[in-house]
Amino acid sequence: MTVRKRLFGTNGIRGIPNEDLTTEFCSSIGKAIGTSLSGSTIAVGRDTRISGDSILSSVVGGITSTGKSVIDLGVLPTPALQYYCKKHGIYGVMITASHNPPQFNGIKCIDSDGTELSREDEERIENIFYDQDFKTVAWYAFGRVIPYISAIRDYIEGIISLIDAEKIRSAGFRVAFDAGNGASYSSTPLLLESLGCSITALNCNPDGRFTSRPSEPTERNLSQLKALVKAGGFDIGIAHDGDADRAVFFTEEGEFIDGDISLSLLVDSIIKSGDVVVTPISSSDTISRVCEKKGAKLIRTRVGAPIVSREMISRRARIGGEENGGIIFSDHQYCRDGAMAAALFLNLMAKTGKRPSELISSLDAYHLHRITVQLTRKWEDVESRFQEEVSGMDIDRTDGFKIFLNDGWVLVRPSGTEPIVRIYGHSKKASRAREIAEKFRDIIDRLQNHNAR
Ligand code: MG
After folding, report:
1. 7 belongs to a structural domain
2. Cα–Cα dist 429/368, whole Å
3. Which domain holds residue 298?
4. Which of 83, 89, 361, 422 has its CB surrounded by the most CB atoms within 10 Å?
5. Active site includes 184?
6. Separation CA 399–CA 385 (nearest Å)
7. Options 28, 98, 112, 264, the catalytic residue
8. Region 123-148 average pLDDT
9. Residue 424: which pLDDT band, with cuts at 50, 70 and 90?
């Protein structure tokens, strides 16, 4: 019997077009999606990647051959497609590789409530794919392609309905915004314009080569935006990742606000006593302090936005998110949403009259230092030796290894989408967080080299 490789990772199917994602493969996945999911129509959209048209066409060819029609929403942020799915109660497919390098692309399936498809539903698609058990229809029953051009406008109106737009408009914020050539190139400027902001737009030309900056919104990758804000004259800097489900911010002074800090800040601004908040074990203890102070219950999960979303639904959580700038606001939808996060941040500034630097200085903050280590061998080969190395220590195995030390903790876990190990050093002091992360990076490197011999 041939082994059935899992196709869907933590964020859909990822790969390189014409290598992993061939037109034949994408068309078969489209057929499996059309066969598996219920309803007569499926919403589709894509980010700005160059292979997006080709992959989408192949997937759509497969879907329509099963008799289902697709509503093509064009280029838009993943959360805008999710919003459309939730609003209309239909399934969706997004062609995106989020923050991955430009040579990648991916296929992500969205449930009819706007959340990421459950693992059981993904498995059903995988089984149909491997069995080639596709539904086929006669020539007169093929699905059609229906373009819909107002999904972004609907999405922005949905966001604006949840904040005090009048107050934000009267504040007249000056915003520097960096789309990184990604899917938010028109949507977030539209949001900011609707909120009366003056906008200086950076990298808002859709360019799937991502030549201006890598699409992962880290401080290092956002040096252009940082320099722009530092030059003065702005109230805030905002940037997204490639498919704009995440947002990160710069203070009016051009200081990078870590995603972990903006998460804690937005949680603090929204929760009341008795509320439930969900975050993975990778977020710092800053959010724990915020929840303790407000009398809210904090639940920690494995790493992965879909896992946080599902937990939020089952616990009826008010807000949740990740330390990488992913904010999930339940009044809006149960998925990460970069534009919603940006709107909530502006709302907080307008409501309090405080500048970003003042807002973050009010937090009892911890530091996270993140390092990625390239895996030269399979993680499984390194894992058992690492386990021996740390045996006897205080370890939480919710996801990877979260190891508690006297003055902080470290999280060591393999990525679900790339051959890397992520290491998060955590402490009250930034220098100590870095030291912890580097120490464990050295351990992983040593174990990899040992195995290589
Ligand atoms: Mg993303």
Report:
1. no
2. 9
3. 154-360
4. 83
5. no
6. 17
7. 98
8. 98
9. very high
